[in-house]
Amino acid sequence: MTTKVTINSLATGVPGLDDLLGGGLPEFSFNLIAGQPGCGKTTLAHQIMFSLATQERPALYFTVLGEPPLKMLRYQQQFSFFDATAINRSVRFVNLCDEAMAGDLDGVLARITEEVAAHEPALVFVDSFRSVVLASKEEGNGHAQLQRFMQQLGMLMTSWQATTFLIGEYFTDTDANPVFTVADGLIWMRQSVQRNAMVRKMEIMKMRGQPSMPGLHAFRITRDGLQVFVPAKVAPASDADTASPRVTMGVPGLDEMMGGGLPRGYSLLVAGPSGSGKSILAAAFLQAGVEAGETGVIAAFERRPTRLRNPALAQAIAQGRIGLVESHAPDISIEEIMQMLSAEVRRLQASRVVIDSLSGFELALGPSFREDFRESLLRLVTSLTGMGVTVLMTSELEDRYTDLRFSPYGTAFMTDAIIVQRYIEVDSRLRRLMAVVKVRDSAHSDELREYAIDDSGLRIGQPLFGQEGLLGGRPSTRGHSPPVEAV
């Protein structure tokens, strides 16, 4: 019986990339990093090289007709991953400009062979390999020569047991090219300008022997290099635990309406029109957790929590008991926000998360990421609740008085509980009403309760109907009050 060959996986040192590749980079693989100018190919190659290169596993970086090594290093050393002490020790740069300008692929291959034999590298980079391709086209039979060159280079690197990267500028992935055929891995980097934002995405078009993640995935270039934002891992569905412990909402009377509080690990949607007190309820939810000795995280996309009329919440944020996630980047993706939330949850070991609000959340995303907002939000909520976190989300709704909706995104189905807030007109005044519409696998009140907002927060009052209720036991026929059946 034939024994399977074990292929070691190398950690690239690029956050998110190993997950995208299916577990890391296969050792001794022959890879192509492709994309248009300026999308970060060289930065990605350097980040991988400095992460992997050691004196026991040295790297050779060949530059062709691109920028000279000294100029390249001048800019690359601005990144935190750059290690100046590794130059000429574990990392060595070689300029192939003369060989490439001569258009002689045999000369290029001979020089690469000479340097590989002299230094015995475990990692080899050729940047930009597109220059070799263009040089070969000057010959009458350039395509055949390039194919032969690629086969010889691949055999050379395999015999030397080197993990190889070819960096090239390509504008389309539809061209027939022997480089694409020979490569074991093909990492395609894309960028586009959308409104005032530069959106960068990465695709693993090919990775032999590994279950790489399909599709386009956003990445960002920072002072630390590239960071790839992969979709949040969705926890497997499990049967609801009706005996799960409850958490208090922090609003007197609301726990009673919800059948004893919100079950821990549930997701709650608080929907209502502008000014109905959604953010105040969310702040009370976080503050109740702090008072119970828990930590929390708030993702704020409208007002900063410190501007709410809740000095205790502002103090909890200042003390680090509540983490704050916010971003004003015009090209942010929901996966990036998910990573920021997850990092804060793990850092604080938080048990409560607030997203305020879904409307601001959608507007905060880059234009290209809004099309999949509903599907991405489902992954985010499922991932958070899978971590055991209790999630509260607010949703802005236009109060139409004649119908009842819970979310403009059709996201009510993905939440375990729903609280709706709305206005009615009584005696020429707007009054606020609240109802618990849903608490999955739990009994809850079906009453419409009036509530008020004052300096102490939300105060829940009497039911809409009844002897002491707002409408004195009979439905109102004044103004635009909806019939109770609508709720």
From TrEMBL:
Q: Organism source for this protein?
A: Roseateles depolymerans
Task: Cite the GO molecular-function annotations of the record.
Answer: ATP binding; kinase activity
Q: Where are the annotated coiled coils located?
A: none
Question: What is the name of this protein?
Answer: Protein kinase
UniProt xrefs under InterPro entries: AAA+_ATPase (IPR003593), Circadian_clock_KaiC-rel (IPR051347), KaiC (IPR030665), KaiC-like_dom (IPR014774), KaiC_dom (IPR010624), P-loop_NTPase (IPR027417)
Q: Name one Pfam family in it.
A: ATPase
Q: Print the keywords alphabetically.
A: Kinase, Transferase
The UniProt transmembrane annotation reads none
